[in-house]
Amino acid sequence: MTASARSHSLVGNVLTPSGWLRGRIVFNDHIEVVEGEPLDQQQQENQLPNNGDLYVLPGFIDLHVHGGGGRDVMEGGDAARTIAKMHARHGTTSMLATTMTAPSAEIEKALTAVGPVCREHISLGARVLGVHLEGPYINSGKLGAQPSNVRVAVMDELYRYHAMAPIRVLTLAPEITGHLDAIRAISAMGVRVQVGHTAGSYEDSVAALEAGAAGFTHLFNAMTGLHHREPGAVGAALAHAEYAELIPDLRHVHPGAMRAAFRTIPRLFAVTDSTAAAGMPDGEYRLGSNTVTKCLGAVRLSDGTIAGSALTMDQALRNLVQSVGLRIEDASRRLSFYPAEYLNLKDRGRLEQGAWADVVVVDRELKVVTVFGEGECLWAR
Residue ranges of the Amidohydrolase-related domain (predicted)? Predict the structure, then answer.
């Protein structure tokens, strides 16, 4: 049971797995009642139902979070708690703390701090479901904003990391010798392997999927691009992937490229790839061992390379609906249901009886009104 044992009731346009209901949900830490009448056909067909009621959506699940509120996961200490609280104010109710490529001692410092956080309820914060290990098993030719401490995956090292904090997702470059075998072993641990930070070919990515890789990390970014004679990792994702993550901050990927990906990858889901700069004013922040600068909403290294983002999931929702043109229910699935499904979470990412009471209420402008995580009010406007 969470800190909140009091029953809550929310009314409005409730997005259920089977569609919109104009009604209410009742919940403690889990959802007890979902009831109401389906919206009429015209309202169902609108990009945004416009009957004047608020929208009651599943809480957002972000599988790629480096930081927020001025803190970075690699700092260790209480950074993950601060990050979880900042993102909760923007509708994120579950997240993966994401590491950077670094020497083993620095990764262990971060994981040692995150491990206990994964086992606790953070008051006023998102649930930290585990870790996304982004690197160090990547290609030095596709670092993006990652530091250069790359190395070949060694299972003994991974088992040690996994014992410190539960690794749920791992980014890896499949073209490196030995990494196809590593994908098989890592997948057998129950970890979702993603192709990313890769200079590999289309064939390398297809081989990775055949070996058990499940998705692609920040699609289009830090990977070989699509050319009609050399399809690259992007071509493999578009042709074969069921899942991939995408950063919809309108800086990492053009809306037209997003639309192409949404048409071809059935369960493409949104992540923020957020840094310590998320929720903070313009200025300098840490991203692992690198210094990054936030200016006019973008986060970059000193040479101009995009370095993660300042995105929050509520802004991702607005971008997907208002700039990319998705219907709100489609955008919601890509922020909640598909990430939960990807991690095989049957009790999150959906508003139905028995699921955790992870709920975000937004208004007509898709601005957050209220956020509940496991029945606790995490934020209210």
Answer: 55-372
Cα-atom radius of gyration of the chain, to the nearest Å?
20
Residue 190 φ/ψ region, left for φ over 0, alpha for ψ in the -120 to 50 degree band, beta for the rest:
left
Task: Decide: helix, strand or coil at residue 244.
Answer: strand
Write phi, then psi, for 370 (nearest 5 degrees): -150, 145
Active site residue 181: no
> CATH 3.20.20.140 region(s) of the chain?
60-348
CA 129 and chain centroid, separation: 11
- The active-site residue out of 273, 303, 314, 330 is 273
| Residue 155 to residue 44: CA distance in whole angstroms | 49
Token pair belonging to 213: 């890789």
CA 201 to chain centre: 25
User: Tokens representing 113?
Assistant: 């701090």
pLDDT digit string (tens) for the chain, length 381 residues: 344 457 899 999 999 999 999 999 999 999 999 999 998 877 777 788 888 899 999 999 999 999 999 999 999 999 999 999 999 999 999 999 999 999 999 999 999 999 999 999 999 999 999 999 998 999 999 999 999 999 999 999 999 999 999 999 999 999 999 999 999 999 999 999 999 999 999 999 999 999 999 999 999 999 999 999 999 999 999 999 999 999 999 999 999 999 999 999 999 999 999 999 999 999 999 999 999 999 988 999 999 999 999 999 999 999 999 999 999 999 999 999 999 999 999 999 999 999 999 999 999 999 999 999 999 999 999
Phi, psi of 335 (to 5 degrees): -100, -15
- Between CA 96 and CA 126 the distance in angstroms is 10
Q: CB atoms < 10 A from the CB of 109, how many? A: 17
Q: Cα-flanking dihedrals φ and ψ of residue 364, to 5°? A: -65, -30
Q: Residues 262, 279: contact at Cβ < 8 Å?
A: no
CATH topology assigned to domain 60-348 = TIM Barrel (3.20.20)
Q: What is the 3-state secondary structure (H, E, C) of 285-345?
A: EEECCEEEEEECCEEECCCCCECCECCCHHHHHHHHHHHCCCCHHHHHHHHHHHHHHHCCC
Q: DSSP label at 62? A: E
Three-class DSSP category at 352: coil
